[in-house]
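Morning!

This is the sequence you dropped in the shared folder:
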Amino acid sequence: MVSLPDDQAAQLEEYRDYLGMLGRLQLDEALAGKVDVSGVVQVTLLEAGRADWKKIDEDERVPWLRRIFANNLLDEIRKFRTQARDVQRELSMQAMEESASRVNQWLAAQQSSPSQRAIRQEQELRLAKALSCLPTAQREAIELHHLKGLPLDEIGQRMNRNKGAVAALIYRGTTRLRELLSKEVG
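The structure's back. C-alpha cells below.
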C-alpha cells in the first residue's frame, strides 16, 4: 500500500465525490451494476498519489485526474469484453461499447479558456460534494434526470418507483442541493 503524506492524501480525497459522480454518469444501466465505480475511484486516487502531485499545476489537476480516471474506467469496461463468452454477455457488448464511447467523448471534450475551465472545475467539485450529501435515492434521481437527461418514466423504471415519486425525489433533492450550495457560498 502506498503511504501518502497527510496533506497530499487530504487534497486527493477532495476529488473522490467528483470522480464518483463522473463514473456514475458515464456508465449505462447495463454496466452500472457491474463496474465498481468506487473501486475505480480508489485506484485513480492511488495512482495520482504515486505521481508527484506537487509538480502538477493546480489548473491542470482536475483534467489530469479525469484522464487517469477515464483510462481506469475504460480498463474496467474492457475487462467485461474479455469475459464476454455467453449469449447474455454478448448482448450487453453494445452497452459496453456505448459506455466506452461516452467515456472517450467526455475525455476528449473541448475546454474553453483556462479561467473558464477553472471556474467550471470548481463548480463541478462543489456539485459533486453537495450531491454526495443527499440521500441515495435523491442523488440518483437528480443524476439520472438532470445530468444524464433521462425522462421521469425511465428513471421510475430504473428505480422501481412511479413517476410522481421520482418527481418528488428530484424536487426534494434539488431543494436540498440549493441549500447546501448556498451555505457553501455564503
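Headline: The chain has two domains: 1-114, 133-186.

More detail when I'm at my desk.
O.
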